[in-house]
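Case study B.
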Amino acid sequence: MSKGKIVSIHSFRGGTGKSNTTANLAAQAALAGKRVGIVDTDIQSPGIHVLFGLDENKMGKTLNDFLHGKCAIREVALNIGEHAFDAEGRSKLKGKDIWLLPSSIRGREISQIIREGYDVNRLNEGFQTIIKDLNLDYLFIDTHPGLNEETLLSIAISDILIIILRPDSQDFQGTAVTVDIARSLDIPNLILMANKAVPKYDFADIKKQIEETYHAPVAGVLPLSFDLADNASKDLFSLRFPDHEWSKALRGVANAILAVK
Amino acid sequence: MPGLFDRLQKEIENKQGEGGITALDLADLPPALRKIMRLMLRELELNYPQLKEAIASLPDAERLPMNEVDEALDVLTRQAWLIRIGAGEKAIYKVNLRRKAGSTVASGIWNTLDSKLKK
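Model:
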């Protein structure tokens, strides 16, 4: 197989902090000296670009352009290490090898792709080509919550699948569906992460409960944090506040990813 | 006059139009076929010698006998889940993923939406 590892980040339900987590995990991998790409496959509701300080005007080519055959995948990759110095956290990525491949946030382009569909072969070719073109160690794929074509494809081709859930009954049931699919697709490394855990509970108990339910390792239980909410996706929280409990727990998840051989 | 590359590309596009596999189909495949398809998805395309080499490099427990591999390749190609260009040792294989379908909502609704969205 190709050298670079594909890390898909998924949650069955929305609102788990998936994009925030993906951006921070990718940033931690880049800080560790890895060559990292991030693809936003949440084509219907893209958002991860915000964490890297991008808006419609700062974005160049997007994944939508690539899927419509208007450009090569390499043209979509924006070098964050060269651009994102406008916030305290992001500035720590200066000179690092980290690229973002955003989805379009233009209404017409989103509606076009929903209306017309797209060639899923081309999406997969884009993933594999960018790993080779940029000689990536890791390609992080931020997925749409729930299950659809791009999400299932990203799960199917993953070396590592991170499933995020909140300690919540609805998340528990939905996560079981994704875990079943991941197992039936022989995903080599399945890692769970709990986010937005209420601090009054015992995190060790939460970890034990999730591991017993899914028979998969939990790499971190991250607290529900008003500080993180206050950050409002304006910056990469774990880089800006590295000593915060959320950031420490996130680094545990990042270390679990980096430890996979 | 179209060149060799153009003709091969046309052949691939024609075969891709015949259907294809979804990720959920992958989950339903027998383990041996699933391993081949996952490998193909990661490598995009493999010629037959590369495929044999890749199979040989799998851990003992996962390695497949070549007669089973050949049988699997035939089955997958017949189902249009795998595209085969050429034959024998020179054959090149490529996964054929099914196109994501567009919305079935009436086109008038999309046209109205587009007229209200800026370009």
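Chain B has a mean pLDDT of 80. The remaining cases will be described in the next quarterly update.
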